[in-house]
Structures are given as structure tokens and as C-alpha cells.
Here is the input.
Amino acid sequence: MGYREHSFVITTNFVHDSGHADANTINLANETDGSGFGNIVLPGTAGTDLIVTVTADGAESSARGSQYTIDASTGAAFAAAANVASGDVTRIHSDDVSVHASDGTVTIATVSSAVGYNLNLGETVRIISYLGAGDTDNKIIGHHSVLTGTNAHVASTAFTEADGILVPAANYLGADPLSATATRLSFKSLSGTAVDDDIVLVHGSGKFKAVCQMMEAAINAGSAKRGRPLVITDVANGIVPFSGQFDLGITECQINNA
Here is the structure.
């Protein structure tokens, strides 16, 4: 199952580590080397397919909509809803998040009374995507900053190409080390195109050889496993039934279909 996560620190001129100039827009596109998010375009345009949090590094006045009252990390009430304090973790409501259909950017709505959040220098934006991510899911982030009585939580019902993939063992082409902590697994395209289906596993440092050994074991699984799917990893649900025996420490699974 797919799982992607990345954090961006707001830099001096609001480029968010990504070259985008708009103060409340973050660019996640084209980071498929394991250092970033992967192809953000795949989730489409629904903010309900993502979880977005902002961690404050200092106090900011009137930088948060009044509907945000709960710290997403601790579950405790904010001292003041509108005024951000150092260390506050605010989980952004899906209504305040939009995903561009083609340019790989995520935008957080600016403050307008009850809604929105104004990003500020030094804050950390964390963006997470997996099947079921959205306001109602608390597997990864334990709390929501907006109480349901204030603004109803929206469940994600979408399943996109980035959420999961099942491929025949015969389609496996090989593995490439992208970095010490990321390996790309390539498969013949399920759609029959000349471009490969790629899966980037983000894992513990120096685990490329172990990833290759894991894939070898999966492909050569005995008759008891043949003809049945093997779950390699499901980070969001803490499931690593096959890859777990190789101590890979997988933290992300970025799926990029041809």
C-alpha cells in the first residue's frame, strides 16, 4: 500500500524548500528520489486525500482561524484559537486544503474569520498521503484541530493510483539505489506502455542489498505462497508482514504508475 510523507520548513522568502513564491502554497512535484513526496498530482484535487499539519516555531498573532482549537499532537486545547503559540501543531481541515490538478502544488487557505491558516517563517508543514487519509482518520495523527461540531469532518473515499498497487512477479524488472535511504523497484507497466511502473521504498540507511534480497524472496516464494498476493508493506496500518523479516525500516512507499 502506498504511503507518502514529507515536511517543509517555511524559508525566508516563503519558497518552502520548493521554489514556489506564494506564501501559502507548497510545491511537492517531481520529488521521486525518496527525498520528498513523490507525484502529488495523482491524488487529484481533493484535500480529503491528504493530512496536513503545521508546527509553529514561535508566537504569531491572528494567524489561525478560530475553528482551530485542539493541538493535533497532544489533544489539548490551544491557549488561544486565533493566536499561534510556539510548538502548536495544527491539523488543517480538508476544506482549507486544495491540491492543484496539474502543477503539483498544495495550497492552504489564508485566515478568514473561522477558517484558514497563515503560514509564517520557520514553521514546519507536514503532508501525508495514504488510502483513507482525511479528516476522519487518526491512525497517523492522533487528533484533529477542528472539532466536528464546528466544521464536519470529511472522510476520504477515494482510491487513487498512489494508494496501492498489485503487480505480477513476472513484471519485476529490477531495483536501483536512489540514495542510501531510497530504492526504486521497477515493473513492466500494467497498462502495457513502454514506461515502467515504479515504486520507491524509503527505508533505513544502507538497506539496498536487503531490499534486493526481500524482492528475491518474494519472487521465489514457495508453492504455499504462489498464486496468492504478498503484502510487502502497509505503513499507515503498521503492517510489514513480508518485508518486516528483512529489517528494512520502511517509512514510505511512493507509487508512480506509467
Remarks:
- The mean pLDDT is 82.
- The radius of gyration is 19 Å.
- The chain is about 5% helix and 20% strand.
